Amino acid sequence: MSNMKAMVLHKPAPVESLPLKLEDVPCPEPKPSEVLIRVSACGVCHTDLHIVEGEVRPRSLPLIPGHQVVGVIESVGTGKASEEARIGDYSGGIPKTLKRTDGENPHPGMRVGMPWLYKACGECSYCKSGLENLCDDPRFTGLDVNGGYAEYIVAPADFVVPIPDIFSDEEAAPLLCAGIIGYRSLRVSGLLPGERIGLFGFGASAHLALQVARYWGCEVYVFTRSREHQDLARSLGAAWAGTADDVPPRPLDRAITFAPAGGLIPRALKNLRKGGTLAINAIHMDGLPEMPYDLLYWERSIKSVANSTREDAFNFMEVAAAIPIRVKTEAFPLEKANEALLQLKERKIQGSAVLFIPSR
Ligand SMILES: [Zn+2]
Ligand SMILES: [Zn+2]
Q1: 113 and 70 in contact (C-beta within 8 Å)?
Q2: Measured in whole angstroms, how far is the alpha carbon of residue 345 from the centre of its chain?
Q3: d(CA 180, ligand 1 centre) in Å
Q4: What percent of the chain has pLDDT over 90?
Q5: Around Cβ 102, how many Cβ atoms within 10 Å?
Q6: What homologous superfamily does CATH list for 3-163+328-356?
Q7: C-alpha of residue 180 to centroid of ligand 2, in Å
Q8: How far is the CA of 50 from the centre of ligand 1 (A)?
Q9: For ligand 2, a single-atom ion, which residues have Cβ within 5 Å?
Q10: CA of 249 to the centre of ligand 1 (A)
Q11: Ligand 2 centroid to residue 226 C-alpha, Å
């Protein structure tokens, strides 16, 4: 096949030095049980920033980042699976508890999303117990394999996510990581209907998690330095918004930290009731500060959130469509990926940054 345009990372570096280069690279070809997706939008995630700047290391370089990929299936891989392709072959389909929302298998013309979990082995004890997010041999989109900062991507057919019709491509993109991982964070925090939850940091993931928590009848407290983010939180239904140094009017049942700053952990814990849970939504963190044991005593717990399962993805998409969730986006053309990441780094994005890729 022909070439495609992509934003390629050759060497991680501070994003101010514009490490992603617009290049013409060979278009990937789908192997058996893979699909070729023509990308129309790709969300920009904080993890992309960590990868581009070298805090999260890819398996190999050069690499095309991007793991919130929306597009249309162009073709399905054909031919006989090679011996190599069959080894650990995609866990034998969607877990039994799941169904595709439209009852369809991936086929040409179908609009789909490709999230962070590119593939899990299907064989390890975690995969077999429904925890494929903890798989011993996973592949992640835009980290272990090329991602969606490009005109095309190939993906395992079993791991693509159907996109509800009510969302545009641009709206759907941030749902695929920010949304899904925010949803998993709510689950990991043990949040129950009607409880009070605190969200620390208010970027792409938190602004979506807030709406799910509201949908479950929960009271949401948002802690962020940015006045604009506090206003956005209140407009989306937050009961209270302030900074991480402010004390909310009532203690929290659950809390989630979204910013990769260890300093938030003690500040979140001090607002948590006895027996409450703090979920940490971060793939990378700048170290945990020493803190008094009193903050953790009374059976408070801290859990990290790692990746997500297909079940999270499918369930979240259903909830997002039922709400229906409002997605605030700022769009950038593909070749402005460095600029989008820089604005994310400087906390200038309201909601989610999304790259758009016009079809040729
Ligand atoms: Zn596994
Ligand atoms: Zn992400």
Answers
A1: yes
A2: 16
A3: 19
A4: 84
A5: 12
A6: Medium-chain alcohol dehydrogenases, catalytic domain (3.90.180.10)
A7: 9
A8: 24
A9: 45, 47, 177
A10: 44
A11: 21
Angle in degrees, CA 162, 166, 168, rounded to 5: 80
Return the ligand number nearest the Cα of 127: 1
Is the CATH code 3.20.20.140 the one for domain 180-304? no
Which ligand is the nearest neighbour of the Cα of 283? 2
Return the ligand number nearest the Cα of 51.
2
Report pLDDT for 358: 85
Residue type, 285: M
Amino acid 85: pLDDT: 39
Which ligand ends up closest to the CA of 88? 1
Record the pTM: 0.90
More confident residue, 91 or 66: 66
**CB contact at 8 A, 142 and 67:** yes
User: Which bound ligand lies closest to the C-alpha atom of 174?
Assistant: 2
Q: Which ligand has the nearest atom to the CA of 142?
A: 2
Burial class (CB in 10 A: 0-12, 13-18, 19+), 72: middle
Asked if 30 and 74 count as a contact pair (C-beta separation under 8 A), the reply is no
Give the ligand whose atoms come closest to the C-alpha of residue 175: 2
Q: What are 197-212's pLDDT values in tens digits?
A: 999 999 889 999 999 9
pLDDT of residue 93 exceeding 60: no
What would the two tokens of residue 163 be? 């996109």
* Closest-CA residue to 44 (of 350, 359, 344, 357): 344
Domain ranges of the chain: 3-163+328-356, 180-304
